[in-house]
Here is the input.
Amino acid sequence: MQPLRLILLSGWGIDRRIWQPLAAHWPAHLSAQAVDWPGYGDAPALGANATLAELAEVMSESLASDAVWVGWSLGGLLAAALFEELPPPRGLILLGAGSTFCATDGVTSAELNAFRRAFQRDPTATWQHFLRWQAQGEPSPRQAYRQLHDLLGDTLPADSDTLATGLDWLASIDNRRRLAAASCPVAWLTGEHDPLIGTAQRRASELLTGVGHCPMLSQPQALVTTITHHATQMASAKMAIL
Here is the structure.
């Protein structure tokens, strides 16, 4: 019997190395593969002002329809946005991601616009600030930030055009209609103390107790258990339909 495939998708300013803490915990019946978005790691960049259609063309081979996609943060937004461009997966698990990034009860549009202006002035310092921000909801924010630093180092994981386009997508993607019409199962997982997620989205999600935006750092085994549960259910539901 073939293992159930998982495709792990990272968020803004962070490449597939973020998933390394989970590697030792996956059960034998799952095959988890972390892939990079264009411009991250060794993946060629799309260039400035890339469109979702261009993104889909490049990612079509990596985002296989026989897998469950696990999209974290911007990775979740992009995965859902690509529903209109690619064949649907066996299921989508959104981790620390809503239908939109900005929310009146979370990160507001004004806050994101201020962040984008800061990024234009000093990309590296703004990126490092974002890493600290993401770590704030973890049981030990200082330890979580050190883990991020150990995984990623001091160098931007993508070129400035790629990162700026990612910020554009954070500001503009609205997946409410796409997710309402999704032709595969969708699960929402949100850290109880995630500083990037608003109250309404937390209420609509399954809460991950005691963690923030980066549960793969602070509770890797518990996160694997939760993802495995949902992925297995999604695969069973898809088989039942077939």
Summary: The mean pLDDT is 95. The radius of gyration is 17 Å. Residues 34 and 163 are 19 Å apart (CA to CA).
